[in-house]
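Troubleshooting log. The previous structure file for this entry was overwritten by mistake, so regenerating from the original sequence record. Sequence copied from the archived sheet and checked twice against the printout by T.R.
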Amino acid sequence: MGAGGLWVRAAHTALSGGLALGLLLHRTDLRRQEERGELLQPLVFVLLVLCSVLLYFKVSLMDPGFVKPDEEVQAGKTEEQSMVTPQVPSNIKMRRCGYCMVKQPMRAKHCQLCQHCVRRYDHHCPWIENCVGEKNHPLFIVYLSVQLVVLLWAGHIAWSGLYLEQSWDWLQHNIFLVVSFLLIVMFTVFVLLLLISHLYLVSCNTTTWEFMSQHRISYLKHSELENPFDQGVILNLWRFFCSCHLTAWEKIYFHRDSEPV
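Regenerated output below.
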């Protein structure tokens, strides 16, 4: 973990914990429920915040789908791994990355920040200081969904503590709630737009990188189809969220008319 990633993750944790604690301590609906001894909603809110933080660390620290060097793959291959890792057809030429010199599967891209090639590369996210790729992309969307619920609930809680008055004393006593509400609104809009865009791309079986750079990616530029990986919304979503192994995208690309793999 680099120093930059450490600071980003520490800032995210401090911001999440600070906002949650502030909403529990100020005169909001959540605080009034605590005082009445109604602890169910405050407890669920705290657990939901904790869940979002744990998901954040899981997504940011896990392997997004790094492509391993040939000798590492051969040395560490076990019988179980050989069943999980997709076998590329022998007639398909795999590209070799000019940076890390590994054989690059289709839809993989080298990330110069992570200094690795990543399978089904989507983008490098500065928020989590990690790439979003084939292995952590589904969990990234789950994290965004949980984070959106937390933000919407937190926004409602912050608003419940605001009784608008045009006076300096009122602003001094409610400055935390005002700032918190504005931050929550800003983050909510950002997370909502990010979640909607990713769900749309997933339903089409494309990635942010492919969507933005379609005219520069050889396997898309020379394809007869606009998106050679699109197998319909239902199968795209099933493959994305329910597949328990890596996908040989070369098979789908070269065998569009055969049975799904």
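The chain is about 55% helix and 5% strand. Archived copy saved in two places this time.
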